[in-house]
Write a structure and sequence with these properties.
Shape: elongated
Strand content: under 5%
CATH architecture of one domain: Orthogonal Bundle
CATH topology of one domain: Tetracycline Repressor, domain 2
Structural class: mainly alpha
Distance between the termini: 67 Å
Length: about 220
Amino acid sequence: MSSSNAEPRSAAQPPEAAPAPRSTDEVPRSTDDAILDAAADLIVHLGVRRTQLAEIARRAGVSRPTVYRRWPDVRAVIGALLTREIQATREGVVLEFGGGAPIDREAFVDGVVEVAVRLRDHPVLGALLRSSDSDLLLEYVVERLGTSQRGLLEALRAGIEQGQAHGSIRAGEPVELAAMVLLIAQSTVQSHRMVASLLPEAAWRRELATALNGYLAP
């Protein structure tokens, strides 16, 4: 498009331009978030095995020592990224489902199913699940109880206690019930591709909710 009819821009209104590459001295948001955002972009587009610390630093606009001061290697960066994204997903659902208001079993299960759906469809977690580079996801999700899972367990425990006080969730040690709910939802998310032809979206949601309601009902 010709610029001959464009209005002149004053000094107070500089011309718009594509953002310049970020330098080591100029990082948006926090440095941690810039690094994790860069790692997320690389995982989605290149996969875990091709995600290197030097490229993470370059995309984040920071030096490699800046990354090393925060995390010792790529696996630690990705672990922190998973923790951030899982926590943000959970908090987003909590806000949408009443912001911590007292809940009964059905509302609790609805929230669990929604978190499961959003994590299942999350770009980073989805890339890990779909690729052959899933060993790190297995390490952080299956083989050990990481920070992100502890956060989920705490949220599940609190919701179960509310449901027990309401009388719609059966008696039992809340932490134990929360651990089993986590296992049910987590295995459903991890295996969804295997049964996608048998469980379309609506059925997937419905059957997960049915399983959780059946487990938690008095």
